[in-house]
Queue: 2 jobs
Job 1
Amino acid sequence: MITVSSPGRINLIGEHIDYNDGFVLPAAIDKCINLSLKVNGHPSRCTVKSEGFSSILVADLNNLGKGTEGWHNYVLGVINEIQKLTDKLKGFDCAMRSRVPVGSGVSSSAALECGLAFGLNELFDLGLTKWELIKIGQRAEHNYVGTKCGIMDQFASVMGKKGHAMLLDCRSLDFEYIATELGDYRLLLVNTNVSHNLSTGEYNVRRAQCEKGLDILASRFNIDKTFRNVTQKMLEEAKAELGPLLFNRCSYVVEEIKRVQEAVKELKSGNLTKMGALMYQSHEGLSKKYEVSCAELDYLVELSNDEPEILGSRMMGGGFGGCTLNLIHKNAIEPFIQKAWGAYKKKFSIELSYFQTVPSQGTSIISNS
Ligand code: GLA
């Protein structure tokens, strides 16, 4: 029996640009899903149970089908992708226990996909590299779940390193570990506890809009089709052709790509105030130009804006709900939460929740017997 631990992720900055050839700055977090796996001796029958769910997923490797509960398709999707690469999989039993909050923008789905892929790789000695496991997770999401996600979440879950964020160039897939030395500041996630059901559909819509905008820009300026070649000046020149919606989408992407590069410089030189200001700008762009925020997220970011001890705050992940990520002085956490809890409850009749996190180790084996 082997047990794998696979983390969720945060993203300091660089949202919705992993599928736009941008840069992202994620980190694995200290909230994980643990999966215990063993070979069961059957040629094709697999069982997967998840703590908190009474039903057990039973799958046949020769006839996977679609799942009946949300998490099933992540599991089936991963098995399906692995089977495209190898015929070494046999029957196995898996038990999972997750501490990664679902629907919070910290990618519980990537934690599950990567943990399972990692575990099966080990259990059946498949010899897949970390990058292959990352891409299996991403393709599971594309092909089985239907979200045309980028590479950031699976990358962060697998490659995470304690005390570090990772600057990933989503075009070349080169990356660099960046120490997160935050002094008296902390990373605080404040959960709106809403998850508007727009996420999958609108996510794919944003992706298609960016592609359309890029098509227009590439043919007008005769450049390679990548946002890395697009400048603000080009956007201004092509404004009429793009129309207001595509102009805003593309302009957000170009600005966010630049912001991540600036943020890394600030983080490296310990200038957290500037780093925080970039986080606020990122939120503004996501909310106004990219339109993937929601009233609850905007409200929490606005509240934090009044607090000098909060250097930065922004929505995180796909959007339309989930958490805000706050760069906050350690002494300001309790008073801010007290204030925000009451104000948020009054405005939305919803109770927010929160947790602190630290950049942590990526997917790993925690026991093998
Ligand atoms: C989701 C996707 C990622 C990324 C973020 C937004 O989490 O899975 O690939 O696009 O949204 O940055």
Job 2
Amino acid sequence: MNKPFMPQLVYYEPRALEYPLGKELVQKFEKLGVEIRQTTSHNQVRNIPGENELQKYRNAKSTLVIGVRKTLKFDTSKPSAEYAIPLATGCMGHCHYCYLQTTLGSKPYIRTYVNLEDIFEQANKYMEERAPDITRFEAACTSDIVGIDHLTHSLKKTIEFIGQSEYGRLRFVTKFHYVDHLLDAKHNKKTRFRFSVNAPYVIKHFEHGTSSLDQRLEAAAKVAKAGYPLGFIIAPIYIHEGWEEGYLEMFQKLSAALPAEALNDLTFELIQHRFTKPAKRVIEKNYPKTKLEMDEEKRRYKWGRYGIGKYIYEKDEEEQLKEILHRYIENYFPQAKIEYFT
Ligand code: SF4
């Protein structure tokens, strides 16, 4: 992805104009000459152009809805944070394995919420309830927020809001390298900036429409120099031919790219590939030619919430993945903290 995201079509909810960010965004897209339509509610967003479902899906991923977040109860976000802070939903990327395909279902367009004042007020309540314990907020549960933030700056405002708080911490993860506007944010080291990284094979075959590994690593180096605590999420860890060398190559690149500033406070989160039966059906529909291996016979079934179990790697494969990736991290980044393997 060599150009920052720009929607082809924009919708706005009338109530969005009651908020400064809503007004600003509508004016911005009018000036840019992007087609913009009013809608009574995002559920009314119909007529996404396209001759068939697949085209509509693709076009929806370049449609932006400027809306108001009505539900202010935040979802929980284990294991990496207490709450998901809702800034946006949807993503312009085309990662075949992305779980948003199932969670957003028929609404894959991107929504950005402009009532930041309400969202921050709610976040303050959660922090007060837990004080003096720290409250961690995850900003990338339902979107790749960095990928759209050059347009909205709502993430930047959230970084500064949490930066001023006493008991708040913020984290998010991205596969995009458009970070320049975030470098001067007053983060006060309370935001952990994470990049999602993977072996070259996985990026090449399954992460279309995202930034390359080199671009992500260049951005990670900038972020570390700007004083942010840095992290990497390796997900999905995926077994493919030559995976051991693939992940080794990835660590070699990481090690060459990261400046000294990154090393004092560096974290890794490791998530093996998994899929559910409903997800498999959606993936095969949206990406009919995918090479993503989703053979239930080769996997171990793990019971999940709401009765929907997931298929993860067999125990011996899981142990091997864990052992090798841990070894690479210990070799290349002995000071880093491995937060979890799941
Ligand atoms: Fe999904 Fe992240 Fe890929 Fe976007 S970048 S499609 S949120 S996995």
